[in-house]
């Protein structure tokens, strides 16, 4: 089974900051990676799929990059609505999620 | 408008079977353009993929749960279901149903339902 490791587990940032979250797979996943945002008490929301494709309706301040085993979610200028938990998901072989990164107010 | 709604008991006794149904509206589960999945999240923890079903009835399960899980689809009711047998307290979680794109990302989720395993 493919394991997904996110870092950091928690990130403290301010509005306007550039934020980067990392996700590492235990083996190559050929770019089959998605990112989700989850707010307390709500279902996850798809942000990015296939490493860097932005889901319809998602603000352009969100972007994804990476290849092989290492992937990154970047928020170019953090907005108040972006304080949430973010998960990565690989779907190269079945499906596995990372453990999550909580973005909190500094 | 697409809507997924989970339903089922919120409390299940240890060793019994957890049964949930996802009712889909706004799109047919018969559509060959999607898969239909179940994902769970223990309180305060991360997401765990449980399994996925295609309209043909083909299923794909998490290897760690495979011996206890059955997912099925009922195209006549536009629903699909999850059965998880021999549950323990470790199965306590919010259970989500979600539509999965052909490539594999979960593009639309239900609101989730909390299932507690306790006597």
Structure notes:
The complex is a heterodimer of chains A (106) and B (119). By secondary structure, chain A is mostly beta strands. Chain A is built from no helices and eleven strands. In chain A, the strands form two sheets. In chain A, strands 2, 4, 5, 6, 9, 10 and 11 form a seven-stranded mixed beta sheet that branches. Chain A is globular and about 35 Å long. The mean pLDDT of chain A is 97. Chain B is mainly beta and 119 residues long. Chain B has strands at 3-7, 11-12, 18-25, 34-41, 48-53, 59-61, 69-74, 79-84, 93-101, 106-109, 113-117. Chain B is globular, with a radius of gyration of 13 Å. The model of chain B has no long low-confidence stretch (mean pLDDT 97). Chains A and B meet through strand 5 and strand 10 of A and strand 5, strand 9 and strand 10 of B.
